[in-house]
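pinned: reference chain
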Amino acid sequence: MTTEPPEGAHGPRPLDRRSPLPLWAQLFADLRRRMDAGAFTEEFPAEHRLTDEYEVSRHTVREALRKLRDDGLVIAERGRASRLDTRRIQQPLGSLYSLFRELEGQGVDQRSEVLRLERTADGTIAGQLGLVPDAPLIVLERLRLADGEPLAHDTAYLPAALAEPLLDADFGHTSLYGELSRRCGVKVSGGRERIQPFLPDVRQAWLLGLADREAAFAIERLGRAGERPVEWRETVVRGDRFTFVAEWSGDSRSVALAPRASCPSS
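pinned: its structure tokens
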């Protein structure tokens, strides 16, 4: 049984012309309220409709729409009606997650283009995994697509002693953690991540469809099975399609500043 939104939840509310808050800011806030209530899923109202609904000038409407666009909530393209940006994917912080399962759970069609799946060796990454420098590794490099559009460039390294059976897997539409569990009997149970702003290199920008000098997120992940490191992953995620969400309380630990470190590359 579904619950209907309260009557008028999708409709406009009068703006307060005596408020010190500018009209465009009030309009922006009310449009956000209506979005959160589920309005505009079919279409986003044109400028002239908003001027009539709120009895404001077109300049006021354009300022509110500019803020919605800047915040990544509305897409505006020349010659086309504005529409909600439903492409942004939310990911909770502080939890073990599989991008494959998260996308599927949010109703996003997910697939990958496998760019590399092979044995390799890398002394630095072996060190991250607690291995000797010349230890053989399995590397899985993928371009992750969400609803057919590039989302992330993802490169995972695993000890070959554990992950050799992954060389026979088809990662076009399956998860690394799922295959690691099924084929290798290894279940990733925890780990740590570091997330930071990042300017992709030329290849990564081309793969992700980013403009020159457009920023993204760089994510480094060390995955563990119990206490044993089993995965080192370097991911570059499009900042315009991905949002990190954190829950906090009065018992949350304070932020610790880490030494400046180089961003991952592939």
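why pinned: The radius of gyration is 23 Å. The chain has a mean pLDDT of 82.
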